[in-house]
């Protein structure tokens, strides 16, 4: 089943081979993490789909075994030789994540169905992250975190990223922040695995070449007790993104372009696989942005083939071996979409739907009240570096309140320590201060999901906001009459400087 390949050149050639869609897919590679790092980055193992027992040809033709990435991952997790879209299979779950919003309900269902004294199936595979309604005086929100803490102590959960001192997040060494970004930073996202979470944007982790999707509390309660989930195999839509990325575009523009193309129901219960030279050029955080918003198109999961960029990001983050898989050359896709990225322009999604896509320059007369840069989609280190680049290029001050909410503690630290390229050594925090932005807030989901009224930057009045978040439904960030324009960090920063929805090329070209 496996053959060793020791030469790094052969590994690189295999990944480069993916560029030709008609060529054979590269062989999956098993990476041994050892004591936290891949012990031998040159050791690659070729893994084929499990062999089927031979049988005589039938009148329907030869047996087809080619599979997409998603089908291969689910086949491995269900110990099946092959799968086809539409099949229902029991899969073994590698990681289950829950947070303070859905965690108490999940725990309640687990205890009701398995007993008050029941133990979770594997305390090493459960990840619990308070992140949504954290920095608030709301007693019910705080009680949710207490429930998580009590459960994790009872179950001796290894990966509980607790927060106890709400007055100073830096005093909490275990606290991380937004679950989807924290999962990646803490090494819980690994190629070839199945990750489920009680949050629709769990699909964010598909950037690592794994099957990741959101599930409800009932399913999560069952997973807590058994480690298994019943899933229907989704068909795969392939998105081929080629061409050099213009300096004024970010992955947020790409995914908004795609959602605008296919609509918010265009990928309903389908896997969205992203390939092509543009995707290969993206760093991991930009790939996460792509996969994060597949749910806004109705997708079951999003996935990007793992490559050297993926493996390098994971170095030192995980001690678990992983085996990436890739779509076979003859795999059957539901449909193909192709984009020449070099010809795209900055876009926004107007209220009140992520598929209400227009060019940013077409909204230049839309006056705004505020800008919000944050969330799992738009609050990563690369997102803030992009915003800082616009502020630096302009040398001007913002004309509307501009709120900055780092996704995690690590991102917050990056804002104060990483120099912005071309700035002469200035950090993001220095550039933001010079531009007149609000001081970066405590890491959390913040106002992305509205939350209690005292949530930082929540829209408690009807306002117009340009936001790097992922949804712009009525009431999403607070007030039901608020208007949210979804945009990239480039566009958000440019809009903050003018007080209107603004094409970032006004400052970057």
UniProtKB/TrEMBL annotation:
A single GO BP: oxoacid metabolic process
Pfam families assigned: Aconitase (PF00330)
Segments forming domain Aconitase/3-isopropylmalate dehydratase large subunit alpha/beta/alpha: 84-360, 362-499
Keyword terms, alphabetized: 4Fe-4S, Iron, Iron-sulfur, Lyase, Metal-binding
Annotated spans, Disordered: 25-62
InterPro entries (UniProt xref): Acnase/IPM_dHydase_lsu_aba_1/3, Acoase/IPM_deHydtase_lsu_aba, Aconitase_4Fe-4S_dom, Homoacnase/IPMdehydase_lsu, IPM_dehydratase_rel_enz, IPMI_cat
Gene Ontology MF annotations: 3-isopropylmalate dehydratase activity; 4 iron, 4 sulfur cluster binding; metal ion binding
Low complexity bias (residue ranges): 43-59
Protein name: Aconitase/3-isopropylmalate dehydratase large subunit alpha/beta/alpha domain-containing protein
């Amino acid at each position: 089943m496996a053959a060793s390949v020791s030469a790094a050149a052969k590994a690189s050639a295999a990944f480069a081979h993916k560029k030709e869609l008609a060529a054979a897919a590269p062989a999956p590679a098993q990476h041994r993490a050892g004591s936290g790092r891949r012990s031998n980055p040159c050791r690659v193992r070729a893994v084929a789909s499990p062999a089927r027992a031979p049988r005589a040809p039938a009148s329907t033709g030869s047996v087809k075994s080619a599979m997409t990435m998603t089908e291969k991952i689910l086949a491995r997790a269900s110990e099946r030789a092959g799968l086809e879209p539409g099949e229902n299979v029991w899969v073994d779950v590698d990681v289950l994540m829950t947070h303070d919003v859905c965690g108490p309900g999940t725990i309640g269902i687990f205890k009701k169905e398995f007993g008050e004294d029941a133990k979770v199936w594997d305390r090493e595979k459960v990840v619990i992250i308070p992140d949504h309604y954290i920095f608030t005086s709301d007693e019910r929100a705080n009680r949710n975190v207490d429930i998580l803490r009590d459960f994790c102590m009872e179950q001796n959960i290894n990966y509980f990223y607790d927060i106890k001192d709400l007055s100073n997040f830096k005093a909490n060494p275990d606290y991380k922040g937004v679950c989807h970004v924290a999962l990646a930073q803490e090494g819980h996202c690994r190629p070839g695995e199945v990750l489920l979470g009680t949050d629709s944007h769990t699909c964010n982790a598909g950037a690592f070449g794994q099957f990741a999707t959101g599930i409800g509390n009932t399913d999560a309660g069952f997973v807590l007790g058994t480690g298994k989930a019943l899933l229907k195999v989704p068909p795969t839509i392939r998105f081929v993104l080629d061409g050099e990325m213009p300096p004024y575009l970010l992955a947020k523009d790409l995914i908004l372009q795609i959602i605008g193309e296919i609509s918010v129901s265009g990928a309903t219960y389908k896997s969205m696989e992203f390939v092509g030279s543009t995707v290969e050029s993206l760093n991991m955080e930009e790939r996460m942005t792509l996969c994060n918003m597949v749910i806004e198109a109705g997708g079951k999961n999003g996935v990007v083939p793992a490559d050297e960029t993926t493996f390098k990001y994971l170095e030192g983050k995980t001690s678990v071996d992983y085996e990436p898989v890739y779509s076979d050359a003859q795999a059957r896709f539901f449909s193909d979409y192709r984009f020449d990225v070099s010809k795209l322009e900055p876009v926004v999604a107007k209220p009140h739907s992520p598929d209400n896509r227009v060019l940013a320059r077409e909204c230049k007369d839309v006056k705004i009240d505020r800008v919000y840069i944050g969330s799992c989609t738009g609050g990563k280190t690369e997102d803030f570096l992009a915003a800082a680049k616009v502020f630096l290029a302009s040398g001007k001050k913002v004309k509307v309140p501009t709120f900055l909410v780092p996704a995690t503690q690590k991102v917050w630290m990056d804002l104060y320590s990483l120099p912005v390229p071309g700035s002469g050594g200035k950090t993001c925090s220095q550039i933001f201060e010079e531009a007149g932005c609000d001081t970066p807030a405590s890491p959390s989901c913040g106002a992305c999901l509205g939350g209690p009224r005292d949530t930082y930057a929540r829209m408690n009045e009807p306002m117009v906001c340009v936001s790097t978040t992922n949804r712009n439904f009525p009431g999403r960030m607070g007030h039901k009459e608020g208007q949210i324009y979804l945009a990239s960090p480039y566009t958000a920063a440019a809009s903050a400087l003018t007080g209107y929805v603004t094409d970032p090329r006004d400052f970057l070209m």
